[in-house]
Amino acid sequence: MHIPPDWGTFGILIVSFLGFWFIFNRIFLQPVLALLDRRESRLRELGERAAKLIQEREAAEARRAAELATIRRDALERREIERRRAEAEAQKIMEEARGAANAVIDRARTEVQNQLTAAEAELEKLGRRLAIELAERVMGRRLDGAAGSAIS
Questions:
Q1: CB 104 within 8 A of CB 120
Q2: How confident is the model over 69-102, as pLDDT tens digits?
Q3: Are 132 and 143 in contact (CB under 8 A)?
Q4: Which has more confidence, 71 or 5?
Q5: 143 near 135, Cβ under 8 Å?
Q6: Is 113 exposed, middle or buried (0-12, 13-18, 19+ CB in 10 A)?
Q7: Of residues 1 and 41, which shows the higher confidence score?
Q8: CA nearest neighbour of 23 among 11, 35, 31
Q9: CB 151 within 8 A of CB 128
Q10: What secondary structure, in 3-state letters, does 39-95 show?
């Protein structure tokens, strides 16, 4: 069975389809497509901004690392300078202490030598006196000043 086409109905269908297509396109498709375009554009902008922020962060990290390395190097240099200064000061103090100790030792030696000399002189006097006393006891008489002075 063959149904002949009704060209009037077919025309109305075509016109209705085009009308609905136009209305549907204006009300629904164009706003949705525009929304999708804006969303895609916004995502692309956010991606570019994120890439830029990542580059800035990496640059900031590189600057921070360079500054940190500089600070560490400066701190090491200052520490080395302070260590050398402290060593020099310690060496100076040690030399001063050695000099002071040597001076004390020299004074002590001089004083001991002086005391030794004085003690020797005192012992010599005491020895002479004892010799005179012994001679007087052995002889049983008192020695004259001539004999006593000869021994003194």
A1: no
A2: 999 999 999 999 999 999 999 999 999 999 999 9
A3: yes
A4: 71
A5: yes
A6: exposed
A7: 41
A8: 31
A9: yes
A10: HHHHHHHHHHHHHHHHHHHHHHHHHHHHHHHHHHHHHHHHHHHHHHHHHHHHHHHHH
Q: Is 60 exposed, middle or buried (0-12, 13-18, 19+ CB in 10 A)?
A: exposed
DSSP class of 4 = -
Distance CA 81, CA 84 (A): 5
Q: How confident is the model at residue 152 (pLDDT cuts 50, 70, 90)?
A: low
**Residue numbers of the domain that contains 91:** 41-151
Contacts of 27 (CB under 8 A, 6+ apart): none
Domain count, the chain: 1
Is residue 36, in this structure, part of any structural domain at all? no
136, exposed or middle or buried, with CB in 10 Å at 0-12, 13-18, 19+?
middle
* Euclidean distance between CA atoms 55 and 99, whole angstroms: 65
Instruction: Please tell me what DSSP assigns to residue 146.
Output: H
Percent of the chain predicted with pLDDT > 70:
94
